[in-house]
Fold Aldo/keto reductase.
Amino acid sequence: MEYTTLGWSDVKISKIGLGLWQVSETWGLTNYSEVKAIISKALEIGINLFDTAMVYGNGLSEEYLGRALKDTGVKREDVIIATKIPGEYLDPMDIFRTVNASLKRMGVEYIDLLQIHWPPCWHNFPTCKYGRALEKLVLLGKVNYIGVSNYPLILIEELRSCFSTIDIVSMQYRFNIVEREAEEELIPYAEANDFTFLPWSPLARGALTGKYSLENLSSIKDFRARDPIFSPTNFTKIQKVIDILRELSVKYGKTPTQIALNWLLTYSPVIVPIPGAKKPEQVVENAGSIDFKLSYEDWFKLSEVGREIRLSYATNYLE
């Protein structure tokens, strides 16, 4: 495993993490023994960054993560726990209550990285009011670092201006070969400020793994069956990228998944993908994206084809 630092800090994190949204009814991974096997394999191969959220499985993801870390016997200081607090929990009083509950679920004394999952879209919580509460958690030692997820730049700037003694250290957004909105201003902002950029959905919810085609889309039975990514209209466009991923997988002796993740790693040194896994074998496959590098020509080829794709997120409604 190769390592980098968490943003401007001196905290060492693996260059690929493990996302844990799949530990939920949404994805269907709710068996503890299966989750433990996945986390154990991640630890075994050197992954130390685990990304979860308070709302994943209504707390189940956090609970199973904490339980698995305890059962494996790993030292607390050897893992980086990143969780997320949703926007509707950003009332200052709720911030302390929910973080306390999160700590209890995971059985830990502190959270390494607390990320704001999304802005308080449905409430009028003043930014500086909840910003100061988050800062207080850092000063009290219950949180080490603060990050943002799914935040527009204007709100990031406002939040940062509210802090007196801290700053954010990371940014998390949707980003992959075919969903590229983040490259317009978000990734450049992370690079300019030495923030780690954590792409969620780095494999476009599995669309870039090479597992799916227009012929077997009907085999998808989880929530992705209604995801615009997997609509025939959009997937027809994505198929162009999948074809190149398969071509390059033969050239490099890697899987389409590994090629797609390496494209992200090559994109910028601040990028640390956090793909999920439903089996230990997928953890190993994801980690295998690090030990090689796409040539500039191959990276550019994927980049250009992906850039030409324009997905419609209203496809299901329009069709």
